[in-house]
Each structure stands twice: as structure tokens, then as C-alpha cells.
Amino acid sequence: MIRVGIVGATGYGGRELLRLLCAHPDVTVSAVASTSAAGKQLTDVLPGFQGLLDITFETFDAKSLAEKCDVVYLGVPGRESMELVAPLIQAGVRVIDLGADFRLKDTAAYQEYYGTTHTQQELLSKSVYGSAPDNRAELKTAQLVAGPGCFPLSVLIPLQPLIPLAKPDIPVVIDSVSGISGAGRTLNQIYHFPEMNENVRAYKIGVHQHTPEIEQELNNEVLVQFNPHVGPYTRGILSTITVRPTASIDFEKCYACYDNEPFVRVLGEDTIPDLNGVTGTNFIDFGWKQDARTGNLIIVSAIDNLVGGTAGMAIQCMNIMFGVDETSGLRLGGMTI
Amino acid sequence: MIRVGIVGATGYGGRELLRLLCAHPDVTVSAVASTSAAGKQLTDVLPGFQGLLDITFETFDAKSLAEKCDVVYLGVPGRESMELVAPLIQAGVRVIDLGADFRLKDTAAYQEYYGTTHTQQELLSKSVYGSAPDNRAELKTAQLVAGPGCFPLSVLIPLQPLIPLAKPDIPVVIDSVSGISGAGRTLNQIYHFPEMNENVRAYKIGVHQHTPEIEQELNNEVLVQFNPHVGPYTRGILSTITVRPTASIDFEKCYACYDNEPFVRVLGEDTIPDLNGVTGTNFIDFGWKQDARTGNLIIVSAIDNLVGGTAGMAIQCMNIMFGVDETSGLRLGGMTI
Amino acid sequence: MIRVGIVGATGYGGRELLRLLCAHPDVTVSAVASTSAAGKQLTDVLPGFQGLLDITFETFDAKSLAEKCDVVYLGVPGRESMELVAPLIQAGVRVIDLGADFRLKDTAAYQEYYGTTHTQQELLSKSVYGSAPDNRAELKTAQLVAGPGCFPLSVLIPLQPLIPLAKPDIPVVIDSVSGISGAGRTLNQIYHFPEMNENVRAYKIGVHQHTPEIEQELNNEVLVQFNPHVGPYTRGILSTITVRPTASIDFEKCYACYDNEPFVRVLGEDTIPDLNGVTGTNFIDFGWKQDARTGNLIIVSAIDNLVGGTAGMAIQCMNIMFGVDETSGLRLGGMTI
Amino acid sequence: MIRVGIVGATGYGGRELLRLLCAHPDVTVSAVASTSAAGKQLTDVLPGFQGLLDITFETFDAKSLAEKCDVVYLGVPGRESMELVAPLIQAGVRVIDLGADFRLKDTAAYQEYYGTTHTQQELLSKSVYGSAPDNRAELKTAQLVAGPGCFPLSVLIPLQPLIPLAKPDIPVVIDSVSGISGAGRTLNQIYHFPEMNENVRAYKIGVHQHTPEIEQELNNEVLVQFNPHVGPYTRGILSTITVRPTASIDFEKCYACYDNEPFVRVLGEDTIPDLNGVTGTNFIDFGWKQDARTGNLIIVSAIDNLVGGTAGMAIQCMNIMFGVDETSGLRLGGMTI
User: Fold this and answer.
1) Which end of chain C is less packed: N or C, by CB atoms within 10 Å?
2) Separation between Cα atoms, residue C165 and residue B85, nearest integer Å
3) Distance between CA A220 and CA A215 in Å, rounded?
């Protein structure tokens, strides 16, 4: 059994992780740590775990966590991970960070998009970007994994194999719609039910922090015009990606890299996914349309932002890190299958 | 491994069952049968199962199913189960029927509420009503299990222990709201998205077929006024139950029967559940309020109609029938935990 | 033209009122007052009114409002109306209060349910409960109108004519489901989109402040068991009302009082309304079912909590008060007609 | 009073038109015609109109309609308008077609996108595209108005003034999300509530029939990559439009044409609209973002597909045709203002 600790389990990402770990056959949840909830029963804070997990929140203590756990997940607010990772790594426990602090290798970009200085450049250089299809080999021995953003995963998996064929001077246009869980639990007038219901919002156009993350993982070979939206539902991202190819594409060859990926479902040309197939699952589904009239290729991908886009992918990384079946705990079908 | 067959997997109940069975560690799905889909790949009909289950629909054949399976689930339309159960039982395989044909012991009530004659009275007398908390002992050896209705489960579990204390001459008032998945996949103008969205509907007041089922399982000791509704969401039933007690109630004693039930969460007085804790789970949550002013007791229960109200309960029954851990495949937390 | 002032237009009730008044052919909006927004353009605070209403918020000043307006609506938080009404009435302007301060004639009940002392008993005795069908004559000359609660209107209109026929010793059971706009604009974790979406909640069972209001307007001849709920949508209340009649009811005679009511649609026996017919309108629709088996009568009513349940009814009262066509500004059909 | 007739009032567009006309102070609904409903009361077919409109469906008869009406709206299925317009025009009544038959001037494009031959080329050449801001002068005397598509209106109004400044060789990328009412009332498994709820779908990418309509009204000066989607809500379109400008743009000058448009709200740079401001209204709101990093201009527009995108715009055209106040019957604020 993999002994798992979680620091910060009360946001949507951390809760989802804990929910999935409860059903994971190769995992024991050994510790949950939280500054605000230390000393409380998990079920006092998150009553939905009654009957699933009987554990008490402890104060964050790197040594204690390293003794009890083989791996520690961090689900803390942005910028806090920077402080917590170093002592954990030093204490000898492997770390998977659900947050954004260790995703961008370029600290200037981090400064620009997150508004704060990166204080852990050495650790940053050792972190592995936690996309299982892209970095499976490095994950096996990674000490620190940076869980990707949900929007980037929805874009990178269909796009990475095609980038050599995209025109470098014309930005790839990415219009994504996310469920509101992507905006987190913090209260905000715009996410008050009556103001988000029956509504769609575009936000942070051109300045969203996932922009440099996407470009980094595309080797900075293209610019991306990332237009994020939220829609009136809880889970799932649909990304519509418009690319101008330089030449005709052999999709079978391009996407052969995913033939044995357990959670990447390449639906093929003219088969466009929706969220029904992925909600509640670790799958990413994508298909595409070639528009001969305009010369564009349009790819549509679907992912559950909390599972395939966050907690499920983080568990898949853990499975790889510890050598258990990569699909363990993740053989879940869509809630509207 | 329990070898499982499913007849009729394309309705919402059957799909959900299949979805849960894919993640069940003690189960192999050995056969799926369907008249309309025979010969087709499961994933041609239900593409969401790509990467989860590689199997082909076969024609219904009782002997063949009995050879391949330890238990067969029926997820067929009402009235069809009557024809299929007899040959399956005769061929020696145990059967769990998700439908309504074997729930009502009173064939006159069946005739009245389902509009057709019951042709299998002998089998009916042997069927076990598939409520794990109520009939655990009988389930161990049951050959035929009648999976309960979703509304009845939401009502019976909180109400059964209290019935001796309810006034017999004043009907118990049950106002339930179900998600639209409870109405099934068949197209209907009233469930077309724009006509059900932002809407709530009452339907079949006083004539819903779950009324006699609830009364039967309350030993016909009280009348129930069952007022069913559907609301603008997919999954979950919230039942608000108004009872006039004859005397003060010792709830701790009454509900002690659930102390060791793995999926019954008795929240207690003044703790009212909502759907967040149960959606996607096999739990039933309930709490209550004593209204001294009116003399009423109001109980509120929450259940996922497709899991705790159908497929999850059916799996729990199977776990009992085959002696595996009763919670196997069912340790799932709420989608909004 | 009726010159109208509004104090407190930023809550959902006040906004809806302003929205409807913009389209009212016999109304000029002469003043909007707000402590927090004084000096700001209305459209700076509520940008949706661009192109509809060009006006600046002023500080509350009773004399000034009385000069500019024939009637002032109050859409302020609970308990604040008590302070504002007296100077307005004294300054000679008629007042329609959307809030709860002048609904309950019994100040002890007000104290119990609203948690504060009523300081304006004299004004209270003069206030008219603003239900047009019930109090049309009094409204014509009313100086102070107490706009009813949204839940009470959904219940009183179908129930008032029947009360002489209900058993007095058995409480009427009222299960209502409201859209989330009924809970107001104030942020609350339980109304954060991802936590209310796909959810139904019961709340304040037995202690909701609309309970004594309903009983008062039923002349305290029956007790009501009021079980309020919120569902995952924005507007509309569906109330399911279970009554035990003492004798058979001549519905045609009972409901003849509504034959000429412009906004009461009596659908009749076995015709059950839903919200589609009323959302965005001033109508209340209701129908009923007699359940011979249980001896109960079940009435279902539908209303838009913000229009027929608040702002629309308040405008209908104003139309009566000022002798214009009672339907003026209110001939609106359902958003899903 | 303008005497109005409607042929085909049972689809969502026709119902919405009728709903708005009931509240229009300068309109009398003189006739409703329908093949399937002839002889029935309107309220038997559309019970939501009880208390609003007392009229009986008649058989379509051009002469009779021309006698009773000053203008006839057509809300019939695609391809049927072609047959109905000629006799109406011949009988001397003006016609506003809500459908698509008279939008495309290029009959080859009509054939390609609608799959049928256009049989009324002469009428087609006389039809006026019913965009009030673009064709106000022609509308005054138009005999036949082709009501625009809802997606095109959301795109054309912000885009038309900018087209001279867009790169002609790089397609404008338009990602639009519409509420499900845009897909009509016809039942379809994908719009069954549980399959569209919590879902987003892309559809008809590159082949949607609104593509040639948009390009025609942009004078065929650019190609558009039109990627339409539907989201889990009833009303409203949010269009996100990515343009590559050839030069810096003087927006104030570009959009000065809308300074006096009553229903075009130019929100300005960095002010991005959402649907709350437009649902239920005839407004189109738009704002934009210049992305210096990518060199793109991103415009976001919001419209109610049934009002500003269909019925409201058709009424605005009628107001212009008959010389009444252009905003008459349309001074409606957003349902979530």
C-alpha cells in the first residue's frame, strides 16, 4: 500500500483527490494536514467523508509527514507550496503539488503571471511536469511533481504531437469553457448561483496564467491565443482549438504515441467529444475537423477539470512513481456515460 | 471473481450499473445481452465505455448466460422481466431485477398500478425485496432479488423503524424531488432541455406506482400520500416526509438498527442533508426536525437515485449474495463532497 | 404618469421592480435612493440598466422623495423599513414596502421570527397586506402597503377560499421549492454555484418566518406545516399543499372569487402547473388532485417569486392605488411559454 | 395600432414573438395561422397564453391574412417560407420571415447549406436583411424582411465596422456558445435534459449554415471560421471573435455608427459582457480586448438568441417599417440585471 498524506484538502482539488483516494485499492491515507483545521476530525470539516475516512487533521510537520507517508500531495493556495516543498523533500518524502508554483520553469513568467517572486529556483529545476503521457519516464523517479493546470492538459495532449505542423507566425486560438468548480470554493459575487446560472462568462482573455504554461509545454514553438470561459455547470472543460497547419497531416502517425495511453481516447476525424463521456473520469477525449474551405484544423477536447485535469492525473502520476498498475483507482466511467 | 451478466444495459439504470461494475474489484463482466444491439460492440452503442470494457452484445439466451455468469442483472423495460426471469432461474443462475416486476407481492396492486397482469406468481412469492438493511439475511441465499424503486428506498430506510409510532389514521405525507434521470432516457417533450430547465414539476400525484411499494414495505400499517416531483438536475432524490407521531420517540433506540449499516448515515436531529453528500454514492443520508408547534416530525432524506437508489444498492445486494465485502466497489464519495 | 421612487434597488427584489417599471407605460421613475450608492449613476452600480434608465442615486430624504414621487417603494434589508416608513408617510407620500416589517400584525410573532422588537405599532395597524385579490378595496386608499412574502402568495391564493373546509386539528402540509433568487444576493457558501448546482436543500423547517404570515392570512384557523426548499434554478416557486378536507368541496363555487382576477389562473382538477407558465410573469397558476384513497386534497401552485411573488404584485397594488389599468406594465407571458 | 398576423407560432421563435407582441402597446394580434392547429384556440395549444391572448388558429389563407393584417410574421420550418411569401406579398401584406429562406442572396450557397433549391429568386432579390442597425433605411419601405440568424447578429454588429481593418487572408475565428433554445423544440436525444445538462457540445464545425450568412453580410471580404457550441442553459449567445487586425484601430471612430442605436451597447475596451445583461432583452452588448502579445483583437458579444437574436429584432424592424417608436414593446431589462 502506498501511504499518502495530503496538505490542504478543503479546496475542490484536494477534496476530489481525497474522494478518489478513498476508493483506490493500493492506497492508505495516512495523514491529512491543515493549519486551520488542525485537531479536528476530517468529517467535522468535510461531513461527506463520513463512512469513508476516519482521520484527524494534524498541523503541518514535514518530518512527521515523511515518517508516515510515501508521498505527500499539496492542495494549498498559490504561493504556499513554495514554502512547504523544501522541508518535505529534505525530510525524504516525495511530493505532488496540485498548485501552480512548480509548473513554470521561467521564473520571470511566474513573476509576471502570478505576481510574486519565485523563491525556490533550485527545486523548480528538479520538478517534473506531471503529465503522464508526456513525462512517464521522468515521473518514475521524480521527487517533486508539478501537477498541470486543468486547461493546459485539455490543450496539450491533443496539440503536442501536431506542433511541428502548425504555422509558427499565426497564434493557435484556444477557446475553452470550464465548469465553475475550476474557479474554486472562494465566494465571489459572479459565482453566486443566480448570477452564474443561465450565464456564460469570458474572463482573463490574453492574461490567463495558463497561457505561459501551455506555451512552455509546446516548447515555445507557437504563440497561443487563450480565451478562457466559464459556463453554468460544475465540472468539465471543452476546448476548441483552431490551428493553421503548414501541410497535410497524417493523424494516424501523429497520434500513434497515444495508442497505449490508458486515459487518452483519440476519437478521430469528424468525431467530436462532449463532456458526458469524461465527467467523473480520468479520460481526455478528443476529435477534430479539417475545414478545407478555411484551411484550418479544429480540434475539440473534453476533460473533467477535477479528475483528468487535476486529481485523477495526479493519482496516475503517483501510480507511475510507485510502480502500481497505472489505472489503479481510476477505472471510472463518465457520470452520464 | 463474481461473473456478472447484464440484460439491457442501455437505460440509465443499466448504464450506471455497468459503470460501477467496471470499477468493482471482485467482478468480471462476462456477458451483456440485448435484443436490439446483439452482435454489436458495447462501445459502438455506449462509446463512453471505450477503455473500460471490451465486450460484445449477445442475444438473450438463458442457458448461455447461466454458463458464463454467477448472477444476471435485468435492466429491461417494465413487464419484460417477467418473461426473462423464469428461464434464467431454471438454468440455475441467480437474478437481480432492476425493474418493478417482482417488487409488489400483491398482484392486484401490480395490475392496478402497472396496467398488466402478473404472469409469474410463483416466482414472485420467492423474490426477495432488495433492500440490504432490511433483508440482509434473506439476500444471502436469494435466487431472485427485486431491486427496489428509487423513491421507496429514500423513504423506507428512515421510515421503517418509526412506523409503530406513527398515527395510523393520518397519512404520512411524502414530498419527493428527483433528478430527471429518474424519468429515463426515452424522449419526452416535458424533458426536452429548455422545457425542464429552470422548472419543477409535480406528477402522478396520488397514483404513482411507488405508492403501493412503499406501503407494502411499511407492512401496510399506514397510508402514504406520495407527491413526487422532478427538478432541473440530473441525479438525486430529496424526500421530505411529514409524520404525526403518537408518542415521543427515542430516536437513538429507533435508529440503532443502522449503527453498523455501511451506507446508511443517520445525521440526527436538526441536521438536514442535501444532495451534495450523496450524488455518485451508495449512501442514504437522513436527519429530522421535531416541530413542537405543529406536533409533526419531519424527516428529510437524500439519495442518488441511480446509485444508492438503483445500481449501487443492487451491487450491495450482490456483494451480500456472494459473500464478498459488502462495500466492495461502492466506497465512493459524493461528487460535491 | 405615476411618479415612482425606490429606496434600495440593488437587491434582487428591487432590481426586478426597477426592471418592470422601466417598461410600465404609466410610470416615471423619479428617484432612486441608496445610502451606499448616493451620488453614483444607477448604471455604474447596475450596468444592465444602460439604455433603459438614466438616473442618479440620491441620499434618502423623506421630504425630497415626497416632492418628487407619488409612491415610494422600499427594497431595503429587514428591520430598516421600520425607520424609513414613518417620515415618508408623514411627508405625505404613499409607501409600498417589499420587505417583511409590516406584514405581521402580531408584534410578538414579529419578535419571535425576526428577532427584533417592532417599533412602529401604530403604522403597523394601518398597513394593508398587499395581496391584490384579497385586499383590492383597501388598497385603493392605502397609505402603507406591506408587500407579501413570495412563499405566502403561492400558498394563500389557492388556500384562502378553502380554509373553512379544512380540518382544523390536522396541519396543512406545505412543501415549497423556490429558485435561489429567493435567498437574495448576499454571498453564502451554500449558494456558491458548484454547491447549489445539482442540489436541492430543505431549510428552516418549522421555523421559517413565512409560517406566521401564512397562518395570519388564513385567519389563524389552521396550523400550517411549512417545509421550504431551494432547488437548482433561479426563479419560481412550486408549492405542493396537502389538505384534509372535512367535506366534499364545490371547487367551482369556492374559486368563483377568482373569475375576474387578471393574474390568477385556476387550472382546475387534475391540471397541475409547472414553472414554465409563470416564470417572468405576474401570474399564479394552480390546479389540484383529489386523492380518494387517502382522503387528501393536494393543490399545486406555481409563481415567479420575483414577479408574481414580489415586484409584479407590488406593481399591481400600485396600479390599484392609483386607478390605472390593473394589468398595466404586467401583460408579460412566461419565459418558456 | 399595427395589425399583426403570425403563421407558425408554436416553435420557440414564434412563441417568443407572440409573447413580446402581447405586451407591445402599438400592436394588435389579429390572426394566428397554423396548418396543424387550425380551428383550435391558441390557449389549447399554448396554455401559457391564458389571460394574455384570446384568439383561434385559422388555416393559412393569404387573402384573408392580408385583409386582417398590416404585417405577417412567418415562423414556419425551413423551406416552407418560400411557398408562403409569394401569395402574401401578392395579396398586399408586408412580410417578416423569421426563418432562413430569404437570408442568403446566393442561391448556390442556399442549395449547399440548406440542401434544397431556392424557388423564389425574384422575391429573394427584393428581400431586406432584417438588421436594424445595418439596414434601417431600406426597412422603412421593405415588403419582405428576412430576419437574421441569431449567431450572425451576435457577430455582425461588432464585426461589420471593423472588417476593413482585418487581415483578409487569415480567417476570423468565431467561437459561439448558444443556449439550447437555439436548437428548437424538436426532440433529440442529445437535448434530452440529462444528456445536455452539465454538458457543452460543439457541432457543425465548419459546415454551419450561418457561416455563409455571416460572410455575405461582411461583404465576403473575409473568411470566417465559425465554431458553434451549445451549453447547458436555455437562452443567450456569447460569441468570442478573434481577429488579426492590419493596423491599429480607432474604436471610438469605428463604433461611432452605434452612438444612437437604442439596442447596441458598446461596452468598450476591457469590458467584457456576459449573458446576465441581455437575457430577455433586445440588447446586444459587446466589448473587446487587444492582446499586444499575440497581435490579436478579441471581441466578446452577448445577445439573447430569442429576443435580440430573433423576435425582438423582428419587432424592431416592424417598428421601423410602420414608423412607430423603434423601442416600442422592447424596453425590457435583463432577467438577471
Assistant:
1) N
2) 50
3) 5
Report how far Cα B107 is from the mean position of its chain's Cα atoms. 20
> Which one, of B54, B27, B56, B51, lies nearest residue B40 by Cα?
B56
| Residue D237 and residue D305 in contact, taking contact as beta carbons nearer than 8 Å | yes
- Nearest CB to D242; choose among A227, A300, A336: A227
Nearest residue of chain D to residue B183 (CA atoms): D194
- Does one domain contain both A100 and A218? no
| Residue ranges making up the domain that contains B97 | 2-147+308-321
Residues of C belonging to the active site: 150
pLDDT single digits (tens) C57-97: 999 999 999 999 999 999 999 899 999 999 999 999 999 99
CATH (domain of B312): 3.40.50.720
Q: Indicate the Cα dihedral angle B126, B130, B132, B133, nearest 10°.
A: -90
Among all residues of chain B, which has the CA nearest to that of C203? B272
Distance CA C304, CA C312 (A): 9
Q: CB of A276 within 8 Å of any CB in chain D?
A: yes
Cross-chain residue pair B298–C227, CB shorter than 8 Å = yes
C271 reaches B (C-beta below 8 A): no
**How does pLDDT run across A97-152, given as a tens digit for each residue?**
999 999 999 999 999 999 999 999 999 999 999 999 999 999 999 999 999 999 99
Residue C121 DSSP SS3: helix
The span from the CA of C53 to the CA of C9, in Å, is 13
Alpha carbon distance A270, B233 (integer Å): 30
Q: Is residue C224 part of a domain?
A: yes
Q: From the CB of residue B250, how many other CB atoms can be counted at a distance below 10 Å?
A: 10
Do the chains contact at B19 and A337, CB–CB below 8 Å? yes
- On whether residue B331 sits in a domain, the answer given is no
Q: Domain check: are A128 and A210 in the same one?
A: no
State how far the Cα of B147 lies from the Cα of B98, in Å rounded to an integer: 5
Judged by CB atoms closer than 8 Å, whether chains meet at A198 and D275 is answered as yes
Annotation says B150 is catalytic: yes
What's the complex ipTM?
0.96
Q: Is C335 an 8 Å CB contact of chain A?
A: no
A49 close contact with B: CB closer than 8 A: yes
> What is the spatial distance between Cα C237 and Cα C301, in angstroms, rounded to a whole number?
8
pTM here is 0.97
Interface test with A, best of C180, C190, C192 (most A CBs within 10 A): C192
From chain B, pick out residues whose CB is under 8 angstroms from the CB of D181. Answer: 194
CA–CA separation, A305 and A291 (whole Å): 28
Within this chain, do residues B212 and B73 fall inside the same structural domain, yes or no? no
Closest-CA residue of chain D to C283: D51
The answer on A103 and A188 residing in a single domain is no
Indicate the DSSP class of residue D202. E
Amino acid at the residue A136: R
Spatial separation of the C-alpha atoms in residues D296 and D293, rounded to whole Å: 8
Distance between CA atoms of A153 and A175, rounded to whole angstroms?
Answer: 14
* C231 to chain B: closest CA residue: B231
CATH number of the domain bearing residue D168: 3.30.360.10
